[in-house]
From TrEMBL:
Keyword DNA repair among record annotations: no
Start and end residues of each Histidine kinase domain: 231-431
HAMP domain mapped to chain residues: 171-223
One Pfam family matching this protein: HATPase_c
MF-aspect GO terms: ATP binding; phosphorelay sensor kinase activity
Reaction it catalyzes: ATP + protein L-histidine = ADP + protein N-phospho-L-histidine
Coiled-coil segments on the chain, per record: none
Membrane topology classification: Multi-pass membrane protein
Its EC number(s): 2.7.13.3
KW Phosphoprotein (keyword) present: yes
Lineage of the species this protein comes from: Bacteria, Pseudomonadati, Pseudomonadota, Alphaproteobacteria, Sphingomonadales
Protein name: histidine kinase
Stored InterPro entries: 2C_sensor_his_kinase, HAMP_dom, HATPase_C_sf, HATPase_dom, His_kinase_dom, HisK_dim/P_dom, HisK_dim/P_sf, RisS_PPD_sf
């Protein structure tokens, strides 16, 4: 599995570090703690067996049997004659037992091979000569868990605790990062978005502060651009009015030239209206219950069309009231209808539905439209489409529609189906 996320990378690094630390700790404990203790125990055992060997040397059989019984009664060591071997448990010695046998054999005062076996309960026995006779000897009583098993259990517990603590630490880092990403997704350059929350570790808080400064600069730049568009549009209206007055004074001299000039004046005036709408925005308009069907009819009229089979069809319920910003929604629908009329292909229609959670206004035509994957590009200010939907205009129509949708918590979607292209304005109920 590819480690694409910070969480997976940190978790893999954490597990690797913990495992390496546990392996190193086990090696150090085995080398510096367990092995010296095993050697020390083997030395004590060798000294004790040497003392028993010296005591039993030349001792009468009856006294030797009494000494063996006394040693067995103590519980620290058990002796059995070679004729009564322990039951074979068929268990190989553990690592510590092997080290113990090697250390014991190196310290005993003979060169015999140390023979060993394990019994059913798991005790380790070895065969030695004591007082001239062979005996099976077991030094320590069997234990439920050896040192290696204890070390493994301790390592597992430490690993679980370390991973749990690491996951908790990662959660404290991951949670503010996810919240920061969600707040950035909700950011709008119109300055209406709330500042990012400054929380979490110092590094993440520093990133949030830097992003707040950056978004502040973006909002200032957007505000300056809006002021510039509004100022330019306002200043151009005076010479445009004078130009229209001049055309009226020249009425009747050249009808064709007069008609052409009048169309150009209307076009310029429409462009200035687009600039002003984009610059002003819709965030200040109150949201109130509105007759959506009547609003759609007015928007279609604003786009220069009538409702009917010959122009733009309207498929909507008889009455539908929905809380929204009326002027923003009317301008958005008018822009979508205008685009369909200018760049699409008849028939053009408007379909209004409500699915229980959002109002959906779909403007469709029979044209090819543009690739819905390029929607984000087309929604930018001054963006131009491909040859399928290009033409004269400011490039602000879809940007104004997008801004009207965002001002109400909604969005704009585009769908290309066989024989139909549709632009859908979606306004949720909580707008």
């Amino acid at each position: 599995m590819m480690l694409h996320t910070l969480f997976r990378r940190n978790l893999a690094l954490m597990v690797g570090v913990v495992l390496a630390g546990q392996a190193l700790a086990g090696l150090l404990v085995t080398t510096l703690v367990i092995r010296p203790q095993v050697i020390r125990i083997a030395e004590v055992t060798a000294d004790m067996l040497s003392a028993v060997d010296d005591a039993m040397m030349g001792m009468a059989p009856a006294r030797r049997a009494a000494l063996v019984a006394q040693i067995n009664a103590g519980g620290r060591m058990e002796l059995r004659p070679q004729s009564h071997p322990p039951s074979d448990g068929l268990r190989a010695p553990t690592m510590i037992e092997r080290q113990y046998l090697i250390a014991l054999a190196s310290r005993l005062r003979h060169d015999e091979i140390l023979i060993w076996r394990t019994d059913g309960p798991g005790r380790l026995w070895f065969l030695l000569q004591l007082g001239g006779d062979p005996y099976w000897i077991s030094i320590s009583a069997p234990r439920e868990r050896g040192a290696v098993a204890s070390l493994v259990v301790a390592s597992i517990i430490a690993f679980i605790v370390s991973v749990a603590g690491g996951l908790g630490l990662q959660y404290t880092i991951d949670r503010p990062l996810r919240r920061l990403a969600a707040e950035l997704d909700d950011y709008h350059a119109d300055g209406t978005a709330a500042p990012l929350a400054i929380e979490g570790p110092a590094e993440i808080a520093a990133v949030a502060q830097a992003l707040n400064r950056m978004t502040g600069r973006l909002a200032e730049a957007e505000a300056e651009r809006a002021v510039m568009l509004a100022g330019v549009s306002h200043d151009l209206r005076t010479p445009l009015t004078r130009l229209r007055l001049c055309l009226e004074m020249l009425a009747g001299q050249d009808p064709d030239l007069e008609a052409t000039a009048s169309r150009q004046v209307d076009r310029i005036e429409d462009m200035l209206g687009q600039f002003l709408s984009f610059a002003r925005g819709f965030a200040d308009e109150p949201c109130q219950p509105t007759d959506v069907v009547a609003l759609a009819r007015a928007a279609i009229a604003d786009a220069g069309a009538d409702t009917g089979l010959d122009s733009v069809s309207l498929d909507a319920p008889e009455t539908l009231v929905h809380p929204l910003r009326a002027q923003a929604t009317r301008r958005a629908i008018a822009n979508l209808v205008g685009n369909a009329l200018r760049h699409g292909k008849a028939p053009v229609g408007v379909r209004i539905t409500h699915d229980g959670s959002a109002l959906r206004v779909s403007v469709h035509d029979a044209g090819q439209g543009f690739d819905p994957a390029a929607a984000q590009t087309m929604l930018r200010p001054f963006a131009r489409g491909d040859s399928a939907r290009s033409g004269d205009g400011t490039g602000l129509g879809l940007a104004i529609t997008q801004r009207a949708a965002l001002a109400q918590g909604g969005r704009v979607e585009f769908h290309r189906d066989p024989g139909e292209f549709s632009a859908v304005l979606i306004l949720p109920d909580q707008a």
